[in-house]
Write a structure and sequence with these properties.
alpha+beta; Aldehyde Oxidoreductase, domain 3; about 30% strand; four-stranded antiparallel β-sheet
């Protein structure tokens, strides 16, 4: 699974945003490396195990000839308190890392395979993620 080698601060403050404002991605919105890409259409926080699950499915569907790029990296820690623990007594322990994805962001890119194989691989990978996705080409 993906996670940072070293972090300056172990726990982050919770990012608070106005849910009524739909903020769209400004970076990483174009297919840059491959021929086909998987684009996020809704906002979400994607955890590292979800990225790994999608990566496995896509790489299996592509076979040996296809090449894949992961365009997101989970660098934001998320915490959780254990079950049946009373309120208070500080913030919970780090459970893992996640990335905040906005609509329009390219999540995965593939190349080296036909359009049918690429679209099927990306469709399967998109089902593993908590966002609505769309397959785009260059």
């Amino acid at each position: 699974m993906l996670f940072p080698k070293k972090v300056k601060y172990r726990k982050w403050h919770t990012l608070r945003e106005n849910p009524k404002k739909l903020k769209v991605a400004t970076r990483g919105t174009e297919v840059s490396f491959g021929s086909f890409g998987l684009k996020a259409m809704t906002p979400a926080r994607i955890r590292s195990n979800q990225i790994e699950s999608a990566r496995k499915v896509i790489s299996r569907a592509l076979g040996k000839t296809g090449k894949m790029w992961i365009r997101i990296f989970p660098d934001m820690p998320f915490t959780a308190k254990p079950a049946e623990v009373k309120m208070g007594k500080g913030k919970g322990d780090i459970q893992g890392y996640q990335v905040q994805v906005r609509p329009g962001r390219i999540l995965f890119e593939v190349d080296g395979v036909s359009s049918e194989v690429a679209s099927e691989a990306l469709r399967k990978g998109g089902t593993k993620l908590p966002v609505k996705t769309k397959i785009v080409s260059r």
